[in-house]
Model the fold of this input.
Amino acid sequence: MTDVIGKTISEIKQLISSKQISAREVATLHIEHAKRNDKETNAFICLTEELALKQADAVDKNFASGGELPALGGVPICLKDNICVPDYPTTCGSKILENFKPPYQATSANRLFEAGAVCIGKGNLDEFAMGSSNENSAFSITRNPWNLKKVPGGSSGGPAVAVASGYSSIGFGSDTGGSIRLPASFCGIVGMKPTYGLVSRFGLVAYASSLDQIGPFGNSVEDCALALAVIVGKDPKDSTSIDDPFGKFNTKKYPALDMNFAKSLTGHDGSLKGIKIGVLNDLLGEGLESEVRAATENGIKVFKELGAEVDEVKVDHLDIALPVYYIIATAEASANLSRYDGVRYGARDKDSQDLMSMYMSTRSAGFGAEVKRRIMLGTYALSTGYYDAYYKKAQQVRRLIKEAFDKAFEKYDVLISPTSPTVAFGLGEKTDDPLTMYLSDIATIPINLAGLPGISVPCGFGREGLPIGMQLVGPQLSDARLLTVAHAFEKSVGFASKRSPLATVAR
Amino acid sequence: MKYETVIGLEVHAQLKTKTKIFCRCPTEFGAAPNDQVCQICLGMPGVLPVLNKKAVEHAIKAGLALNCEISETTKFDRKNYFYPDLPKGYQISQYDAPVCMSGHLMIDGKKIRIHRAHLEEDAGKLVHAGAAGLHGSDYSLVDFNRSGVPLLEIVSEPDITSPEEAKNYLTELRNILRYIDVCDGNLEEGSFRCDANVSLRPVGQKELGTKAEIKNVNSFRAVQKAIQSEIERQSKILDDGGRVVQESRLWNEADGKTHSMRSKEEAHDYRYFPDPDLVPLSIESAWIAEIRATLPELPEEKRQRYVNSHGLSLDDAAVLAESKDLADFFDETLKLGANAKLAANLLIGPTTAYTNDNKIEFTETKLTAKNLADLIAAIDSGKLGSTNAKKLLLDLLATEGDVNKVIEEKGLAQLSNEDELRKMVEDVLAKSQAQVEQYRSGKTKIRQFFFGEVMKISKGKANPEVTNKILDELLPQPEST
Ligand SMILES: [Zn+2]
Done:
């Protein structure tokens, strides 16, 4: 049997187009691999086998009749279970939506399916994307394929683990404060959060609407570029999606993130001459594990060898980004999650005798502790008498953070930092201490607040052989240039072909 | 003590759009429950609102007609509260940057200021089984057809001082919204709803008293009655040395009283914040100008013109201007050269009586401006007498026809030929010697008899003026008594 597990997009497409294997066989092999091994990793909330085979057959049929293999033709993907696909539950990792099947499809899923992607399953996540370890799922705890005693990072832990374990070639998560980049870093793969507004949020169940953004996971920067090129672009169903992102709003004339760009990435010579890189020194301080520091320093060396100018840079207010995030994100979440009231869909406490008790018992039973904590935080921050001190102040600081990044980008093309101060930590290690848990996202959160594109690329391995990620950040809409820099870095730093034991065992 | 009444009105006007404000569901009234819903107006997970441009256009148009300033940038906010008819657990509304600010209306020569007008989405509708409200019902059902229907909430300043004035303000406001065709103003279908804030203060006091908000008033008459009843309730409390409680009160048509709605739901903290799903909206001045150019002549301008340029009484002008259809028809008739006063009289008198009797709208009659103008011309020229004119008008309201042809066919033309009339009068007098004698002897009241006889012979066509003139000539001089 042809080896298809742990392959990149172009490898899989090459195998299919050279007729060494069919899309159906690719799908079946991935599903079998997942069925055999995901009992341990819990990357999936559900497998979408029927859908996968239907999609794979369509790709095969079209290819057999002389069609060209589309951008993601036959490529197995995993979608985080907060991205709506009809006929299957979209649970958001929550009991309150356990049996909820949306009658509509997310725009990003539409675009992926039209590009020939084959959906293997819906990925596990922290409930409503709230968490950094994937331990907040109501259904099962996702485990890291590099070490099953470790967390995979959250909240898009499921799709990250699916890719890192070889259940799917690429994956899609949502990133509100680091939910793609952190698990990418913990799982030794590439994960990118695009510029806010580049990918439609229609059909993505909202956590914090002004921060949420869908993005890809892949075994390489190139895969992320190819995957992203399929889903970017204005969606009339999402008012916050940017119209003509690389046209009229692209005043800085960044290259367009489209299929031509994504395909051209392989041919890039790898030189970073003329690129100015700023190291975010605020994120190199307290709490940084020594292996992470060492890998980061090695990464800096690599950038220099590639010809980039590297400097340390201070971006103001990064030290208060975390509290700002926990006010804005929770405030938005408190409203976004109000619709789960047991009235129209989802779980309902049927024994309640009156409206108020129905609301209370439905929501008490339906939501987990972290979700409740954040709803309460957000409700508090918006309350009369506290609004000015919390929500309004946080919005003001958010603007200052944006401006501080703008200032830094006057001088630098790309800013870098460790994606997380630590490698993947042990299961249960931080569940009793939310504040420590929140610190995992200290480097990723400011990027969401400023709406910037950020990508995590593997840059080394730490204790117990756990992966370490480097975060690269660019100005708004510089996503393509950021990918070019990340690609050059990936090629030189040399971890792109490393696969987790689970993805390797399957070979 | 003598109190002064202070009233502020909040009107929710449903904007006349084909689709809802944030989705593409139709807004038509009367569909089967939950027939006009989609994932967006049902608040399903992961869906997003997209603003209906027409709703904004209507809001701007209303703002302009109400003399408001239109905001250069406006935004939408979430108003958070739980209720089963509110699918998202928040209503998308406008908090601190409404689309329209600081307008006014002229009511009987007095300026009533408008504080603001903002866009928002309507909620669904609950239907309870076994009780009038949610409390105590066996079960409740919810119909989301109305969920997401665009509303313009128009908030007046507390400039209104009597129930009568409140009614007049509402009448004029509804009339204007109908004139500019942004709201059908149908109270029964809930497309024009009103809450009234009422407070009292001792005459001369500047500071406002504590207000009560009266809800559930479904007709203009009810508004007047509810406010009156609330004034009486509050003055009694104040006279007895008590204090008015700030609260919402429900008007009950049956017992003619307002009742406290005091409940837990009252203690709302709506936790408004900008809706991150909708981007702030900049309204360009060119767009405002474009909309302004579509504004028709408004009721107040029409009334002024009718009084000043056409010599109508203020009352007649007001009746005509109250209906845009009637006023437009009147204007069209004038353009055809008709006498304004006659046109007004015919439209206000027999025409309105006809539509009322038949319970139809004016637009449902067959009358055309050309016909009315021809009719008036026939009256003016003496061709048609007033009795037959009225008859003919009723015909023209009911069936199409050409005025002059109908006059011809039905022989309605007035008889003004002096020779013919003289002969008729002579005949009547000759046949009525006894009555002529009575007249001569001083019983001049009997003159009406001769007039009536002439009318009878002429089948009502005799020109009254000419007939009277001839009677004057031919009747003997009465003896003075
Ligand atoms: Zn709808």
About this structure: The longest strand of chain A covers residues 454-461.
